[in-house]
Amino acid sequence: MSKQQIGVVGAGTMGQGIAQVLMTSGFEVQVFDVAEVALERARSAINKGLEKLVAKQRLSEEERQAAVQRLATLTALEGLAGCEIIIEAAPETPELKERLFRDLSTLAPEAILASNTSSLSLTRLAAVCDNPERVVGMHFFNPVCIGQVFLATAF
């Protein structure tokens, strides 16, 4: 596994915010989405967010540039195989999330699989995984910030 490599599934508003916080915290981040246009929007939104942090003097230009270098985008789920942690921020559709967790548990059997769900059962998501003990809840509020992590195990 790569050093401090984290995957984010979903390039919508929540996925963008999660990725930006992780990038500015020094993590290598890979954002997956099935739609290339969503990944392009995410990259643009993240860049704008980082530029705002520089303008507010919360981030130096050098730190912004380094953070940008830590972002990769993917349209193939297999690209997340080397991640140590994968945070799911997909739409609140049970079948979609179950399929993602099933696939991710096979692709990245050593990874911690985290869901950002606010309404679905973590136990239900964990039940479709090869290693259900590796599934956790990690809820972020919008807008995402470092201090808003809630961690709960599925069992």
UniProtKB/TrEMBL annotation:
Q: Which GO terms describe its molecular function?
A: NAD+ binding; oxidoreductase activity
User: In which domain of life is the source organism classified?
Assistant: Bacteria
The 3-hydroxyacyl-CoA dehydrogenase NAD binding domain covers 5-145
Q: Which Gene3D superfamilies match?
A: NAD(P)-binding Rossmann-like Domain
* A Pfam family of this chain: 3HCDH_N
Q: GO:BP terms for this protein?
A: fatty acid metabolic process
From the Swiss-Prot or TrEMBL record, give the protein name. Answer: 3-hydroxyacyl-CoA dehydrogenase, NAD binding domain
